Amino acid sequence: MLTLLICLPLLGALLLLRRSEAEREALRLEALLWTLLTGVLSIFAYLHVIDVCTGAPANTFAYEVNAPLIPRFGVTYHLGLDGISGLLVMLTGVLGFVCVQGATAGVKDGLKGFLVALLVLESAILGVFCALDLFVFYIFWEAVLIPMYFLIGCWGGDRRIYAAVKFFLYTLVGSLLMLVALLFVAYQGQQPTFDLTVLYRQRLAPDRQLLPFLAFALAFAIKVPLMPFHTWLPDAHTEAPTAGSIMLAGVLLKMGTYGFIRIAIPLFPDAALHFGPWFVTLAVCGILYGALVALVQPDVKKLVAYSSVAHLGFVMLGLFSFNLLGLQGGMIQQVNHGVSTGALFLLVGLIYERRHSRQIADFGGLFTQMPLYSRLFLLTVLASVGLPGLCGFVGEYLVLFGASQRSMAVAALAGVGVILAAAYLLWMFQRVFYGPVASDEVRAMPDITRPELLSFVPLAVLMVVLGLFPSVFLKAAEPTMQWVQQQVPLTAAAAVPETGSKLRRGVAH
Amino acid sequence: MDFRPPDMNLWAALPTAVVGATALVTLLLSVLRPAGAARRSISFTLFGLALAAVGCLPAAIFRPGPSFQGMLVLDPAAVLLSLLLLGATAVCVLLASRYLVHDGVDAAEAAVLLTLGCAGMLFMVSAGNLLMVFIGLETMSVALYILAGLAGARDRTSHEAALKYLLLGAFATGFLVYGMAFVYGATGSLDLREIGARIAGGGAAPGFLAVGLALLLIGLGFKVALVPFHMWAPDVYEGAPTTVAAYMAVGVKVAAFMALLRVFNVAAGGAAASWQAAVAWLAVLTMLVGNLVALAQTSLKRLLAYSSIAHAGYLAVGLAAGGAAGAQAVLFYSVAYGFMTLGAFVVLLALERADDKPQLDDLRGLRRRHPLLAAALATFMFALAGIPPLSGFLGKWLLISAAVQAGQVPLAVAAVLCSAIAAFYYLRIVVYSYMREPADDASPVTLAAETRQALAACLIGTLLCSFPFGLWLLSAAGWAAGALR
Questions:
Q1: Which of A448, A425, A234, A227 is nearest to A340 (CA)?
Q2: DSSP characters over A330-365
Q3: Residue B333 contacts residue B398 (beta carbons within 8 Å)
Q4: Is B229 within a domain?
Q5: Mean predicted lDDT score pLDDT of chain A
Q6: B2 lies in some domain
Q7: Which of B136, B160, B137, B133 is nearest to B148 (CA)?
Q8: Complex ipTM, two decimals?
Q9: Between chain A and chain B, how many beta carbons pairs sit less than 8 Å apart?
Q10: Which end of chain B is less enclosed by CB atoms within 10 A, N or C?
């Protein structure tokens, strides 16, 4: 089943290759069919996961496949879904459809290559989330780079080459060190093994965990991106075509946070605890820095990109609170961010196609011009800000609650981040949508069309469902999250005051 | 005195004999009946190479073991690399029939020389005795000295390349032979298995052995272009006709690395302490210098030359790691490297115009000028950069895992950091061919039938070495590595 899910977009990509460049409509429809199929399948898979994993013992996986791949090296073809990966798989499936439906009209040149890259990308991302073997995980993890590199580099904006190469090299350096650490870990036991579920049981001695943890954490932190490693993100997001940005923000970044949940924390819990305060500090810095930079961006897309840095800071803060509330909050927040930021990028892409500008100053008064579009935008902004009833609220609330149990100071600073988030998003909304109509170009902009609306619907549904029924999603992830939390040897609340002091130093800089 | 029957297992010599005979017959035919010799000798050579590949099969099935008093060992590893070398030679013969002819070279002549060189390489990969290593190396090198200078009528750098290669090659051979003499002095034998047994039994004089191994490392290091013995490589690659450069980058390196593997990893495995650190340092130096200098290249041929130097460094990581895991990594990487490098050179040939060495700028907008060629080039570049799921990644994974298994984590870290540097210039090639617009005067690219076939062969080879198909080759290499010694 999971093999089918991973191969479906890839198969679609191969079949697309036989069509000629000229048949634009046929190409688009065929790609749409494949992503729709994948999307529906991924939703069904997640529904089954909810069934299997809710209330199940830890490390119960739905659709588990486990076959030896290279027996001599202990490499297994081990795939499986639980409440965390299942949710991300569903998100990937949905966003794949959204991308093809909503973000391919702007691709003027080389549509075939674009769709092929998009489908290959979807396959690779699905593989990352399904893998339970480090070798398989690494293959998919790195394979993501190639299609994304082409998406940014061939169909991006003016500085696309710089952004593509920066994205590729930045990520590659991190992952290569992870490769060494991964091999180091695999050869620790009597038998080499790359199977995660086996590796969970062979814990390294605490002092030997530090370096491998740092190598893994570096790879994941670059992907997330955690604050000092975030510089590739604004470039990549801004230069990427709309579909690329949606995939990048929606699921690619989640590979990093997912890596922390699935690999870095449970495999090296002592090291994670040891370095925890650093990550908390960086996460809070990211929240505040991302928000402050977003506040002054004149470019809507860049604003959304920096808001990603802030939102992902929340996710990391939740994960490194090491309590169930924080972990669950981080988990759900990463999905929320995928939905709401993916939607924001989609919507920004739509006005860019109409106006060929993303400067806030070029707009104004859109509310009267594009009423339906504006309401959808407002919904997304509110979801992103964390209005109760929409998706963002649950995640931010849980994260703040979890963080406050560890350190009040941290939670307070993160709370400032929430306020800032409301400020920059709503201020941007006000400047773009209210006020007098800015120019004749704006006056000529048509409202959202029906196909565009269709691409937005799945995201809107997810926003509402995640906001109204979060417990369904949380319960499915709970067994694994509880288990992850138990792995971390939290003894006395020793780390808490230390976190506070480090944080103050971090902020003072 | 016991009587031993003459140990002449002909199966072991079959592939080499067929290749040698093919070369000689082609030569005779082209002299005796010059009319239509070009086409005939190309087809005959290709037929002979295919026959030799079939000739490897009995060896793979019957596993003859050491033959001719241990001179020839056609073990699975030798069969694997022989097949690769035969394939690479066939591709080069195919290319020579198209491109060397443009340089005013007689096609039959090129085919004969390429085939003779191949015979030498086959000797090297199945050598069981230091003398055989020497004979194979010289047979191969003499053919290559001539080949490097073949384009001299058109391009004077070709003469320069040939002379440089000859002088430095002869110099390196001196080191090699001197090293053999020392090893003989230390162990009393030239037979690799015998040397291994003496070292294991403690009967080798450690000082002499260390000096001998060091000299052997220098001699063979010249051939595979390990830094600091790499100075000749970029000039020779650039001056030699591109077909020959491809042949050198793939054939010589693979054959000489197999010889290194047999001498160091297998025979001198017991004395690893005396050479492992040296090889590891050479590996780091080679990867670092090769990759860093490649960053600054704008001539594609020189870029590939430095890239092949860097890859010698990666292979040396496997050598330094030692053991069966290291041998497996070297075997797999040799095959993967062979296909992807050959493929890159084929693309280069397709872009070459009359008297102009292709530059990075010539790649501009290749996506529009010839989409298939651009896709092939991108595949080879990502494979060379070692990005999963392509062949280069599986190879690097094996190499790094061998180094980690051997407890050489710093070496593994150095290898991955160097391959991150390498990604930059491989990516730049993709950037030029995919993301930059073609120049206004860019000529459309057309592929000749021979180029098309050669490209398809390299592409299929690379994909077969990639995940998931490459896992078969991976197990085969593991099996072959286990059967070494």
A1: A425
A2: HHHHHHHHHHHHHHHHHHHHHHHHHHS--BGGG---
A3: yes
A4: yes
A5: 87
A6: no
A7: B160
A8: 0.88
A9: 84
A10: N
- 3-state SS assignment for residue B230: coil
Report, as an integer, the average pLDDT of B90-95.
93
- CB-nearest partner of B401 from A169, A176, A183: A183
**What's the gap in Å between the CA of A214 and the closest CA on chain B?**
14
For chain B, how many structural domains are there in total?
1
pLDDT attached to residue A502: 41
Residues of B in contact with A149 (CB under 8 A): 427, 430
**Tokens standing for residue B75:** 């073990």
Does B5 reside within a domain? no
The verdict on residue B416 lying in a domain is yes
CB contact under 8 Å between B416 and A149, yes or no, is: no
The answer to whether B419 contacts chain A (CB < 8 Å) is yes
CB atoms B471 and A69 under 8 Å: yes
Strands B72-73 and A75-81 turn out to be unpaired
- What are the tens digits of pLDDT across the range B11-30? 788 889 999 999 999 999 88
What pLDDT shows up at residue A225? 87
| pLDDT digits 0-9 by tens, A366-385 | 888 888 888 899 999 999 88
Q: Where are the domains of chain A?
A: 1-206+229-239, 268-509
| Tens-digit pLDDT profile for residues B354-395 | 667 788 888 888 888 888 899 999 999 999 999 988 999 999
Kindly list the residues from chain B whose CB atom is less than 8 angstroms away from the CB atom of residue A110: 367
The Cβ of residue B141 has, within 10 Å, a number of other Cβ atoms equal to 21
Q: Give the whole-angstrom CA distance, residue B58 versus residue B80.
A: 13
- Pick from A463, A448, A466: nearest CA to A101: A448
The distance of A33 to chain B (nearest Cα, Å) reads 25
pLDDT tens string A334-360 = 999 999 999 999 998 888 888 888 888
Tell me if A153 and B401 make a contact (CB, 8 A cut-off).
Answer: no
What residue of A is the nearest CA neighbor of B437? A154
Chain A residue with minimal CA distance to B466? A139
CB atoms within 10 A of CB A471: 11
Q: State which residues form the domain around B456.
A: 10-480
Give which of B153, B99, B147, B154 is closest to B120, Cα–Cα: B147
Nearest to A176 among B416, B427, B436 (CB): B416
